[in-house]
Amino acid sequence: MKKRIVIKIGSNVLTRTDGKLDVTRVSSLVDQVASLRRHDYEIILVSSGAVACGRRELTVDHSLDSVEQRQLFSAVGQVKLVGLYYDLFREFGIHVGQVLTMKENFEPGEQYRNQQACMTVMLENDVLPIVNENDTVSVTELMFTDNDELSGLIAQMMKADTLILLSNIDGIYDGHPDDPASNIIPTVEPGRDLSQYIKEEKSAFGRGGMHSKYTTAQKVQKAGIRVIIANGKREDILLDILLNNQNVPHTEFIPYAID
């Protein structure tokens, strides 16, 4: 039986230090996902990066407010991002489908069921869903906190076995990640509180941060789903964790037992 995995790829994983899309990194992650599919993993990607793509694609010579910037850059960048995924996955004979969603789609009711049914039929027909927030219409109170929250909701909606949150650091530390005296926390048992180690900092190119990942991980863990926070910039990180049993640094949340 296939294991269903939701993989969230953050903006800081997909972009270089200058803010441009890191095509080499995207290609590496696609290679890993293709390998996982050959080993009977069913993958749903939640991918950030549209706004960053659009910001580097367009030069705007007049001022835009934050909402206008988000709408414009995401509209242009989403096309570029999904086009890249399409081209890279096509080399492996993998069909992809785009799912743009909003927070209101996760309220109980017809929209929730329609979205769930859409993604289910995609998986049943061997199509890999690539999910992102619909930033062109989701603004202010309509927005998800970030794609960490979105990926957690997708994992629960689609009854995933595992949610993997790829960031640009290795996991949760018992101190500042840059402090040599800090150690990574490898496992988080149900009920363990790590809030003393979490700082409310935003990531450089996205809206999230470790606080967001920790909040999402707690909720998904309570739903009986394993959660892994790992460094998406490490070579073969997905394969080393899921296939190769390599002892690479990461933080794993052990799921609650669900009756």
Outline:
By secondary structure, the chain is an alpha/beta fold. Helices cover 38% and strands 17% of the residues.
Write structural notes for this entry.
- The protein has 259 residues and is an alpha/beta fold.
- The protein has a single domain (3-253), classed as Carbamate kinase.
- The chain has helices spanning 11-14, 23-38, 50-57, 66-90, 110-124, 147-157, 210-222, 237-242, and strands spanning 3-9, 41-47, 95-101, 127-133, 162-167, 187-188, 226-231, 251-253.
- Strands 3-4-2-1-5-7-8-6 form an 8-stranded mixed sheet, with helices on both faces.
- The longest helix is centred in the N-terminal third of the chain and has 25 residues, at 66-90.
Number of helices: 8
**Strand order, largest beta sheet:** 3-4-2-1-5-7-8-6
Distance between the termini: 21 Å
In the predicted model, the low-confidence regions spanning at least 5 consecutive residues are 202-208
SS-based structural class?
A: alpha/beta
